[in-house]
Write a structure and sequence with these properties.
With about 130 residues, the protein is an all-beta fold. The chain has no helices and 9 strands. The strands form 3 sheets. It has a 4-stranded antiparallel beta sheet, with no helix packed on it. It has a 3-stranded antiparallel beta sheet with strand order 3-4-9, with no helix packed on it.
Length: about 130
Amino acid sequence: MNILAGVGGILLKVRLTVNAPVLGPGSRRLDFTDPTYAGYAPFNSSSWTPPTVQPNDDVAITSPIIQFPGPTSGVGQLIYGYIVTFEQSPGNLLWRAVQWAVPKPMILPTDLIAFQITLALRNLLA
C-alpha cells in the first residue's frame, strides 16, 4: 500500500512561519504562526511529482520550486521556517516542520524565499 499516492496536489499546503517553537514529537499545527504581511499566501499546488521509490526503498514525492515573494506593501516580517500541512485532515495535520538556523527577511518587495521539498515515507515492508 502506498500512502503517498493520494498525498500530492492540493492536499498538501506549505506555509511560512514567523515564530520558532521547540520542535518535537508533540509539535502541532497550532504551534506555528503564519505571516501576516501584505501579499502572503500559503503555497498550494497540484504539481508534486508522482510517488517514486528511492534507493533505500522509501517512497517519496517532490514539490515544484516553491516561491514566496516579499510584501506587496507595508511592513514585512522575519521568517523562521516552514511547515507542510495535510489539509484534508481534521485540524490540518502537521506533516513536516523546518526551522532555519537564521531567520530569513521578508521585508522588501524584492525579497524572495525559494526552495524545494521532498517528502519520504519509510517503507516498512522492505
